[in-house]
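Render this sequence as a predicted structure.
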Amino acid sequence: MRPFGFKVLAHNLLPLLSILGAFSIVITFQAPHLAKLKHQNSSFNKAKLVTQDINTKTQLSFVKSMPSFGFDNLIADLYFLNFLQYFGDIEARQQTGYAIAIDYFDLILDRDPRFIGAYYYLSNTASIYLGKPEQSLNRMERGLKSFSVSTPDKGYYVWRLKAIDELIFLGKVPEARSSLLTTVKWSSQYPDRESQDVARSAQSTVNYLATNPNLDRSRLEAWNLVLNSAVDKTAIDRAILETKTLHSKVSVDAKRVMKLHRAIHNPKRLRPH
């Protein structure tokens, strides 16, 4: 498998690097597992794993419908740990995919919509492993209704995650710009250096988007990452469709290696609002 590389992404979209920091760190740690995911010979019985996923989905739905008796945060923490076990079981995921990951997040974020750490895994899982950034955005938008500038602490990070999904997966420049402006507004209210750095980098990205940049190459990088990470057929098909929409002269071989047959000519430029 040939990585499509972050060097091209850095070269073509340098001002975005600061907001992509968390995103790229996650991918860096995952990269060594990608080849293993594609070629592992699992001894697991797929039928049993499918049944296990069905039972887990039923359990998550049942728990979500039950009263919490004041233990919302405890339930969210418990099922987040369960999700980490589910996500980390590489052999099982290679067999059955990541489809019920969203069910975990529906429960976790329903019980604790201010659980900032969960949003990082939501964005990563929904956008990259399921090829469904819309589902990530839908749940972020719902959770952000319970956020304010100060509660939870440094909640601006979720606005920044939202901007990443909007921008590099969906090319929604106006929406990403709005999310980044909120990131600037909220993070600038914190006096610590980390928050001030976030405010400056987000503002820099807003300024960059105002120059009407071509984001096609960076979006190709993002969907190629989905192509190399996904197990579910729907995610793979979506990644192929998105890459071909962005570049008509792209092909994907049997090993899911993307090949560009010529440079992009007269690309459509995205207009900021």
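Summary. The radius of gyration is 19 Å. Confidence is low (pLDDT under 50) at residues 1-43, 263-273.
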